[in-house]
Amino acid sequence: MSIASMVKENLYAGKFSEMFSKVAVRVRPLRADEGPRIVHVVSDKMLVLEEEADSRRDVLRQRRLNEKHYVYDRVFGEDSTQEEVYEAVCAPLVGDTLSGIAGAIFAYGATGAGKTHTMTGLMSRALNHLFTSIAESDLPDAYERDIDINIILQRCRSLDESGTEIWNFQHEVYV
């Protein structure tokens, strides 16, 4: 069976993860130099953001609620693991990619929010999952290995098929 026919068969059978955007939030632990926590995870889908103490003294804001509730497709608390985030957010996309459907994950947030930490964990697990699945498949040579990975502020290196290093650099890449 060709990859194209496998994609068509899986698409019509509904075997792909949901085909739309999802938003997940990961709350990182507070550092010692930060003030009190104002973001609280309520459930795996909701978090609450408290207003900062300075804005509560504002006369115009006194009658407003001091909390804002936000609902997402998935919320991870500060005790979440890289593996937990990967399994919930990234693993379904890797499965779809193996069946010919493209997927993308990106991180957005303020400096120091934990984007690089989270994405590094997702990237290493996704590549391991991808290449292990290809190697263990019935048709490992049927997959086209044309991978475009955009990395920002990461150490990069490439190995040829024998494991010999082709290039190695640490550079900032703008995508």
UniProtKB/TrEMBL annotation:
Segments forming domain Kinesin motor: 20-175
Keywords of this entry: ATP-binding, Coiled coil, Cytoplasm, Cytoskeleton, Microtubule, Motor protein, Nucleotide-binding
Keyword ATP-binding among record annotations: yes
GO cellular component: microtubule
First-listed, main subcellular location of the protein, grouped into a coarse class: cytoplasm
SUPFAM superfamilies assigned to the protein according to its UniProt record, in alphabetical order: P-loop containing nucleoside triphosphate hydrolases
Database matches in InterPro entries: Kinesin-like_fam (IPR027640), Kinesin_motor_dom (IPR001752), Kinesin_motor_dom_sf (IPR036961), P-loop_NTPase (IPR027417)
SMART domains for the chain: KISc (SM00129)
One record GO biological process: microtubule-based movement
Gene3D superfamilies reported for this sequence: Kinesin motor domain
Molecular function GO terms recorded: ATP binding; microtubule binding; microtubule motor activity
Positions with a binding annotation for ATP: G109, A110, T111, G112, A113, G114, K115, T116
Subcellular locations according to the entry: Cytoplasm, Cytoskeleton
A Pfam family: Kinesin
PROSITE patterns recorded: KINESIN_MOTOR_2 (PS50067)
Family: Belongs to the TRAFAC class myosin-kinesin ATPase superfamily. Kinesin family.
Protein name: Jg8541 protein
